[in-house]
Every structure is written in structure tokens, then in C-alpha cells.
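Let us practice reading a record.
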Amino acid sequence: MRTYKEIRRTGIIPFLCCIMLFIASVEGKAQIGKRFPSEMSSYTDPITGVPVKVLTNNPEYSDSRIYQTHPQWTYDNQYIAFRSKRTGNGQLFFVQEKNGEIIQITDGERNGEYNLSRKKGLLYFMRRPEGKPAQVIELDFDRVLADSQKGKMKHHTNYERLITEWPDSLRVSGGMALDVEEDLLYVGVTPPHDIETWKNPIDDSSHRIKNRPGGIRTINVKTGEIGFAFNVDFTMGHVQASPFITREIVFCHETGGDSPQRMWFGDMKTNTYRPLYIESDYEWVTHETFADADHVYFNVLCHLERLKTKPSGIFSVNLRNDHVRVLGQVMAEEVNADLKSIPAQANSFWHCNGSQDRQWAVGDDFQGNISLINVKTGQIHLLTTGHVMKPDHAHPYFSTDNKRVLIQSGKLSNGERLAIMVIDISNIK
């Protein structure tokens, strides 16, 4: 019988150790389809008396939603998507709205730019492998959910289709959006000649995002062909596709603060673009989002004294004739004094969204309160309060049936981490 030293000399033990480490590594990374118990709870807002349903509330990890310009619910309205680092690097998870069960949907290297199909169980996103070109992926999450339910998961690549590799020369700037026909993806970019600015995007003197030329590129979902739409002479931001009309997009000039001309409308049938709502020097315009086929809602801020002498609030602009309406503005003096994290005079609506039945607008304000605005009457309903706006903003979003508002909130952890919450508005008139 050989001694330990003889066995070690043969190299068998190092070989076995490598195999074991490899298996452990693969098992540690193979988290797709993993299920987590419900964290669901509820509370009644102490100021408004409105019930708030808490869908995620992990004491260790922050859970953030997909940004409010993109779909949040799956096509069958059963699951809400959110990002989390529950299993290491950041991945996308679904939470079942009715029972609170949480399921990991993506796996692998760093992912982002998530787009849920509105028609079927598909997810489009970018993966960024270390030292390799980025990949544009289509993932069949219906198969992920089915195999997860059976407890028979395969490697994550079995559920994915590689659409294309993204060229290193084009840096994504402003995100990726899926056309309502779901045959094209739109990607905001920094063209090749400005890569050096990308490496140092923040201006040290102003602490704002440097201006760098941008543009829009398209990806054919079936063939992976990358097409040129147009270039612009400013930093591209917040690229979003109309959920209603094909080949229409909205994007912004991103500065990290006040832009000279924030909003832009793109006609992708002709690959042309124009300013949307030509703003004045005294206006601070931000956080635009499609409300219906013909309207975009956006915010004109009044959080600074110099902005208070002109109209502000949640605005609506008509894409067809440029007509503008002011839908409403939060009244700082109506908010309970105990909830104020900043001076009352600095309050303002910050982000907004619109219900598809054209009845409601919703906004969060600088103090972390969520309010509904009746689009026809202008009446404001304070829904829920004290959501802190840390470590990120609430970003309210309507469900497709117009009966619920989805937010992310730092309320339960005093701004240390985010939880996903839903507010039922079906009884509000």
C-alpha cells in the first residue's frame, strides 16, 4: 500500500483537489432557478391609512427595480422583476406578487440593461464577461420557471440565445430598450472617438457628467445585426421605447443635473430626432416617461428658490402637436412635519409615471412621499409617506391593469437598503 507521500508525489491529490474546487465553483455559480421563501408582509401608512404590501425585505441585501421607463411585470402579470445581490454578483430575480416567492432568473457574469417582453416569457439583457466583448442575450424565463418548479435546473446557457456580441468600440450610454413590436432593440451609445471621456465621465469641478457625443444604434433581435440610427452631440441617457407605437423612442441629454435641453423624441422609421418640450433657462426638466400613445409625462422641479416663480410639477406633453399641460405639484405645507428629511421649501415632485387608462399620474417627491394626481380634475391624493429616497429613489410605476403602484423604498431600513412594495389604488376615486 502506497504512503501518503507517494500518492502526493504522483499528483493524484492535487488533481482531485482541482476537481473538487471546480465542482464547488460550478455549484456556487449555478444559482439560476433558485427559490427563496416569501418575505411578504404589509403595513398601514400612519398618515394616509392606505395599506402597503411589502414584497421583499431582506435584512442583508438591497432590492432595486428595473428603471421606471421599462416594463416591471412579466407578460402574464404574475411576477415583478428586481435586481439583487442575494447570490453574489448582481442578478435579476422575480417575486411572485400573490404568494411572495422569489426566484433567481439570470446567472453568470455581470448583467444589465434588462428588458421584459410584454408578449411572452422572454427577457433581453446585456452580459459583460470579464475581458471579453459584451453579449446581448435573449433568455426564455418561462423555461427557467418551469424547470425551477420541477427542481431540475440546467446550466444558465441552456435557457439563453446569444443575439450578438457588442463591439468594444461602442460603450453603452443611456441603456437599451425593446420596440413594442419586439423585433428591434435600441441602444444608447458613446461612439468610438470619445472613449477617453467615457473612462473619466465626471467633471471634477462641477461633479456633473461630462458632455460627450452620443447616439442610437439598433439590434435586430432575430439576426443580431447592429444598425446605425443617428448620432447626437450630447451625452445620451434614459433611452426608452414607446409601449404603444412602434419605432418611436424618447431619450435625454444626461448631465446628472440640469440639462440645457433635456428631452428628445426619436422617429426610428426615418432615423431622425427632435427636441421634445423646448425648455426655458429657468426650468429644470427631468425624468420623462411614456404615459400613453400620444403623451409623455415629465417633471419640472421647484426644489430651489430660483425655480419657484414659474410653473412646476408633473407636466404632460403631446407628441403629435406639442401641447403642454401642468398636471399638478406637491404642496410642501400639506406634508406632516415629522416626515421632513429636508426643508419643506425644497420639496418637489421628482419622478412620475402614468396609468394606461389616462386616469392617473403618480409621483414621488423629495421627501419620499408618493402621490396620485387625477389627470382630469387635478385632485392630488397622498398615497404613502416616508420612503426616505435612499439609497435610491422610489420611482413609482403603474401596473398594466392600472390598479396598483409599484415602488422601491428605503423606509423599512431608514435608507440603508431598498425593499419592493405595491400599493393598491383600486378603491381611490
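A brief commentary: The CA atoms of residues 196 and 212 lie 10 Å apart.
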